[in-house]
Amino acid sequence: MIGNDWDEKLKIIWHSEGFKKFYKIIEHEYATKTIFPPQNYIFNALKLTPFSNTKVVIVGQDPYHGEGEAHGLSFSVQEGVKIPPSLQNIYKELESDLGIKPSLKGDLTKWAREGVLLLNSVLTVEKDKPASHRHLGWELLTDYIIKVLNTKEEPVVFILWGNFAKEKAKLITNPKHFIITSPHPSPFSARNGFFGSRPFSRTNNFLKNHHLKEIDWSLDN
Fold first, then answer.
1. Rounded CA separation 67/88 (Å)
2. Omega before 37 cis (within 30°)?
């Protein structure tokens, strides 16, 4: 399914009858409706950030539901697409926190290659219908991914923005890991505690203190 060490970590899921039945529902959705991201991008987060390379997890809700936006990474949009408001606020906090100027692009692939797993809880969505695939069954897989990461020997930083993401904290029980929570970067909540939360420097300080390579959060070099 993925082509890296996630296949071994998730083989119990891939080979389960329940997942096979669920995935047939997803394939039917793609065959009969306009679904995002493109089907070959559904597992993009796992493909770009192998289990062994995952140092940080940023949990999103579900993909962007507009034409050409989603490409399988939470908060990220494809090259050439207008930067969404939540990502604009993430960039503002990044500049305030680390002095990194906001990127002119919204593609976060570089972060994924740095070891930041940009994981949406729900991996697909119908065009112009936000949260339309919530409760179809994706949460069983993505919660399992978080549980697998919870078993990791090396410390991992979990960044949980907003109430939806904060619900995942109960799956992270290993004291080696570090959980950062704040309000969502959405324009509706960013000023209620997202701005000033300094998730990027806090992440790098934690990694540095555990003798792990820090994340290069810049996108334009």
1. 19
2. yes
Continuous segment of H or E residues that includes residue 56: strand 56-60
Interacting residues of 153 by C-beta distance below 8 A, sequence separation 6+: 176
Contact 33, 126 (CB under 8 A): yes
Residue whose token pair is 């065959």: 31
Catalytic residue among 5, 62, 143, 216: 62
Q: Which among 138, 158, 136 is positioned nearest to 146, based on CA atoms?
A: 158
| 62 is annotated as an active-site residue | yes
What gap in Å lies between CA 125 and CA 30, rounded to an integer? 10
Name the residue among 137, 112, 119 with its Cα closest to residue 60. 119
Alpha carbon distance 23, 43 (integer Å): 13
Q: In angstroms, rounded to a whole number, what is the distance separating the alpha carbons of residues 178 and 122?
A: 23
Q: What is the 3-state secondary structure (H, E, C) of 106-124?
A: CCCHHHHHHCEEEEECCCC
CA 11 to centroid of chain Cα atoms: 21
**Each residue's pLDDT tens digit in the chain (221 positions)?**
899 999 999 999 999 999 999 999 999 999 999 999 999 999 999 999 999 999 999 999 999 999 999 999 999 999 999 999 999 999 999 999 999 999 999 999 999 999 999 999 999 999 999 999 998 999 999 999 999 999 999 999 999 999 999 999 999 999 999 999 999 999 999 999 999 999 999 999 999 999 999 999 999 86
Longest dimension (CA), the chain: 50
